[in-house]
Amino acid sequence: xxxxxxxxxxxxxxxxxxxxxxxxxxxxxxxxxxxxxxxxxxxxxxxxxxxxxxxxxxxxxxxxxxxxxxxxxxxxxxxxxxxxxxxxxxxxxxxxxxxxxxxxxxxxxxxxxxxxxxxxxxxxxxxxxxxxxxxxxxxxxxxxxxxxxxxxxxxxxxxxxxxxxxxxxxxxxxxxxxxxxxxxxxxxxxxxxxxxxxxxxxxxxxxxxxxxxxxxxxxxxxxxxxxxxxxxxxxxxxxxxxxxxxxxxx
Length: 250
Fold this sequence. Notes:
Strand order of the largest sheet: 3-2-1-4-5-7-6
Distance between the termini: 58 Å
Number of strands: 7
Number of helices: 10
Strand content: 15-25%
CATH topology: Rossmann fold
CATH class: Alpha Beta
Shape: globular
Structural class: alpha/beta
Order of helices and strands: HHHEHEHEHEHEHEEHH
CATH architecture: 3-Layer(aba) Sandwich
Number of domains: 1
Helix content: 25-40%
């Protein structure tokens, strides 16, 4: 493995109260190398610069600790994981997590499986599928303590994809830009219909940068009605609004 300057990365993580072992640091660096290697064959990320990947992918993924510090044995699902952000990064930093990486594109699953093997990680699986299907009863429905997502979708849509996975008392945490705060009010109805309740929306800036982020934390307070998530396409085409929410709550 090439020699890398990790000083900035370490300082960024220290700002979050995260201290990596030598093995974990090596896993992150190898993850970076694998990302670059596979990115030459498929479009995994437009961000490829070393410091940019560390800041905008790794540090951003681990910013979860601003609102929640995962516990050993917690089951976490990352919906629309892409190249493994934030789920795979969280697994490296918190090896006691049981992680499911869900994505609808099989090429990404191939990359994730290769990365999981190369990094020597246990209790993590990459699943090819859509959230609408994997959240069905008898599969992943209400089986997770934590559901996270950095997927590009409005918060109402993302809530319908993610809240069905969360068990009562668990959390759905959406990674958003600073504009995410504008989506919260519009998504409150969807959260309620789906069994969730907004706990907090935390705005912050990534360490030593001007990159503004927002973590939206939704607590699961009751079971999600069986009709959700709706069939493929509907959550994004027709997000739950006031009228749909009233029908769904009856």
